[in-house]
Design brief:
The chain is of the alpha/beta class. The chain has a domain at 311-569: Rossmann fold (3-Layer(aba) Sandwich), CATH 3.40.50. The chain has a 6-stranded mixed sheet, with helices on both faces. It is globular and about 75 Å long.
C-alpha cells in the first residue's frame, strides 16, 4: 500500500485541520480546570443553541457515565444532531451557551469554553464521531486506508508506514474481510456496510473515551444494522468507551442503549433506563413515538383468477454488461446477472412487497417494471409489454407510476408545487386548459392531505419549503394525478421519521382502499411489509428465495435468510 499523504479533509476533524497538518500533531487539551473532578464522563447543563436569534436547543441537561450507552431520540428537527455537534463546536454560525464538563485525559474541562486550539486536541482523540451517511463523510479522492492513517499521523504522530499498518488492523477489527486489500479501496468501491465500518474504524483510531454516533445505521439494511450494532457493542465493551447514540429508530434503542433521553422541539422531555421508558412512558410525546410502529389497515381482497394482473412477470431476467479483462475484452463483454428468472404477479387492488438487502435485485426489479431497463422473459404492465417505441409505451407509463425513496432529490428544486404535480397532465392530457389543470392539481393535493388552507400559497411554493413527510405527499400527488393503476413504491418511507412514516403508510393504505390501487412495494423494512403487503417475495443475490402471503412468509418463514431478516427486525 502506498504511504498515506497528509491532507486536511478528514470527517472527524474541523476545517482548521490544515493548520495542524502544517504544524504537526494537534495538542492535547492544555486547560483543565484546576482541582475540578466530575463523577461522570460528560455532564451537560443548560445547553442552548440558536441560529440568527432562533433557539433550536432550549436549555437541556443530560449526563453520560463512563462506558454508558445513552440514546438521544426524537424526530427530525428536534435538535438531536445539533446537540451532538455543539459539544465539539462543529456547528457553523450558531450561538452556543451553557456548560459541557468532560472528563478527558487531562482532567475536567468545559468543552463550550475551551480555546479552539485546545478543543482540537479533544476532537477525534477523546471524543470521536460517526456520521449518518459515510458516502458523503468520506473523501472520495482518497482510499479509506489513507483517510484512517491520516488521523493516526495527526493525532498519534505515527510515521506513514506505522499509520498504514495500524489502519489495516483497525479495518480488520471492524470485521472488513481482506482488510489489507480494502484499505486501498476508495469509498465508492465499498458497500454501504463496509463504508460504515470504515467510518467506525476512523472514529476509533485514537481509542476515544466518548463516541458520538449520529444515525449510524439509518442508511443500512436491517441485517447490516444488526451487524453494525453488534460491532459497536463489542468495540464499546472492549475499549470501555461511552456512546451517545442519536437515532429515531426505536428498535435500535431497545437493542443497544442503557438509558434513553427523548427530545422534542429542542427540549429533553423524558429520560430514564430503556426498559422503564418503553414499558411506562410518562410523556405524551414518548408515547407517540413508541406507538408509531406501522399498523396494518388494508382490505384483504379476494383475487379473481380470471382477472388479468396489473403487473405480471414470468422468468424475468435482468443483466448488466461487465468488462472482461485482457485481450478477450476487446471483442466481447461479460455480464452480471442482477435478477435470475423471477416470476410474480400483482393483482388489482393488492400489494406485492419485495424485501431483501442491498444488492439483492430489488431496485433492478423496479426498473424493469417501470420499463427503464431492458430485460429478458415475459413482463406485462397493464396488459402490455414494454417496447423500444416511446409512443407505444405512453399508455403503460400512464398506468404505472413511481414514488421514490428520497422526495427531496426526486422533486425538481426549480419547479413550483403546481408545476411538479401537474407535469403528468401536460404529457398525458395536453388538451386541458390552465384552469382545468389547476383544479386537478388542487384535487390531487387534497387527496394526500395538503390544501391551501393549511399551506397558504401552496401552488407557488418550492419543495425546500416543506418537511420530508410533506415532500413525500407531494411526490404521491404527482403520481396519482393521472389516475394510474399501479404505483411502484421504492423505499417510500425509509428516509422518514417513525411518526411521519406511519402517516405516509396510512395515506397509502387509504388511497388503495378508495381507488383500488395496486402497489409494488420495494423495502428492507419488515414492519412496513407487515403493514402494507398482501403477498411477499424475498430476494437475495437476484434470486427469489421465498414467496407467498404475508402471514406465510413472515410468521412462518422457511428459508434461513428470511428467518434472519425477520429476527433482525426484532
Amino acid at each position: 500500500m502506498t504511504a498515506p499523504t497528509l491532507r486536511t479533509d478528514v470527517s472527524s476533524l474541523p476545517p482548521e485541520g490544515a493548520e495542524l497538518a502544517r504544524g504537526g500533531p494537534s495538542p492535547r487539551s492544555t486547560a483543565p480546570t484546576p482541582g475540578t473532578e466530575v463523577s461522570c464522563l460528560l455532564e451537560v447543563k443548560n445547553l442552548r443553541v440558536s441560529f440568527a436569534g432562533k433557539e433550536v436547543v432550549r436549555g437541556i441537561d443530560f449526563s453520560i457515565q463512563p462506558g454508558e450507552k445513552l440514546a438521544l431520540v426524537g424526530e427530525s428537527g428536534s435538535g438531536k444532531t445539533v446537540t451532538a455537534l455543539s459539544l465539539l463546536r462543529l456547528v457553523q454560525n450558531a450561538a452556543i451557551s451553557g456548560k459541557a464538563t468532560f472528563a478527558g485525559h487531562d482532567g475536567a474541562v468545559d468543552l463550550l469554553s475551551l480555546p479552539e486550539r485546545a478543543l482540537r486536541g479533544i476532537r477525534g482523540q477523546d471524543i470521536a464521531m460517526i456520521f449518518q451517511e459515510p458516502m458523503t463523510a468520506l473523501n472520495p479522492l482518497f482510499t479509506v486506508g489513507e483517510q484512517i492513517a491520516e488521523v493516526l499521523q495527526l493525532k498519534k504522530a505515527l510515521t506513514p508506514a506505522e499509520s498504514a499498518q495500524a489502519a489495516i488492523k483497525l479495518l480488520a477489527d471492524t470485521g472488513i474481510p481482506e482488510a489489507a486489500r480494502r484499505a486501498g479501496s476508495y469509498p465508492h468501491q465499498l458497500s454501504g456496510g463496509q463504508r460504515q465500518r470504515a467510518m467506525i474504524a476512523m472514529a476509533l483510531a485514537c481509542q476515544p473515551k466518548l463516541l458520538l454516533a449520529d444515525e449510524p445505521t439509518t442508511a443500512l439494511d436491517v441485517t447490516l444494522r444488526t451487524q453494525i450494532l453488534d460491532l459497536l457493542t463489542g468495540l464499546q465493551q472492549r475499549n470501555g468507551m461511552a456512546v451517545l447514540l442519536i437515532t429515531h429508530d426505536l428498535n435500535l434503542v431497545r437493542r443497544f442503549a442503557d438509558r434513553i433521553a427523548v427530545m422534542e422541539d429542542g427540549r429533553i422531555v423524558e429520560t430514564g433506563p430503556v426498559a422503564q421508558v418503553f414499558e411506562q412512558p410518562q410523556h405524551a410525546y414518548t408515547r407517540k413515538l413508541i406507538d408509531s410502529r406501522p399498523a396494518r389497515d388494508v382490505v384483504e381482497r379476494r383475487v379473481d383468477p380470471a382477472a388479468a394482473a396489473v403487473l405480471q412477470a414470468r422468468d424475468l431476467r435482468v443483466t448488466y454488461p461487465l468488462p472482461i479483462p485482457g485481450v478477450r475484452g476487446w471483442f466481447r463483454k461479460g455480464e452480471f446477472v442482477a435478477l435470475h428468472g423471477a416470476s410474480f404477479q400483482v393483482p388489482a387492488g393488492q400489494t406485492l412487497g419485495v424485501i431483501g438487502e442491498s444488492g439483492s435485485g430489488k431496485s433492478t426489479l423496479a426498473l424493469a417494471a417501470l420499463g427503464l431497463h431492458p430485460h429478458q422473459g415475459q413482463l406485462l404492465a397493464a396488459g402490455q409489454a414494454w417496447s423500444g417505441d416511446a409512443a407505444a409505451n405512453k399508455r403503460i407509463r400512464r398506468a404505472v407510476q413511481v414514488v421514490f425513496q428520497d422526495p427531496f432529490s426526486s422533486l425538481s428544486p426549480r419547479m413550483t408545487v403546481e408545476e411538479i404535480v401537474g407535469e403528468g397532465l401536460r404529457v398525458h392530457e395536453p388538451g386541458l386548459s390552465a384552469g382545468q389543470r389547476r383544479e386537478r392539481v388542487l384535487q390531487a393535493l387534497a387527496e394526500v392531505g395538503m390544501g391551501e388552507t393549511q399551506f397558504p400559497g401552496l401552488l407557488q411554493r418550492y419543495p425546500h419549503e416543506f418537511s420530508g413527510g410533506q415532500r413525500q405527499r407531494l411526490a404521491i400527488a404527482r403520481a396519482l394525478i393521472i389516475q394510474p393503476q399501479l404505483l411502484v413504491l421504492d423505499e417510500p418511507t425509509s428516509a422518514l421519521d417513525v411518526t411521519i412514516q406511519k402517516q405516509v403508510l396510512q395515506l397509502l393504505q387509504k388511497l388503495q382502499r378508495e381507488h383500488g390501487l395496486s402497489y409494488l412495494l420495494i423495502t428492507h423494512d419488515v414492519d412496513v411489509i407487515r403493514a402494507m403487503a398482501h403477498q411477499v417475495m424475498v430476494l437475495k443475490d437476484g434470486e427469489v428465495l421465498e414467496a407467498g402471503s404475508v402471514d406465510e412468509v413472515l410468521e412462518r418463514p422457511q428459508h434461513p435468510y428470511t428467518q434472519t431478516l425477520v429476527a433482525a427486525q426484532g
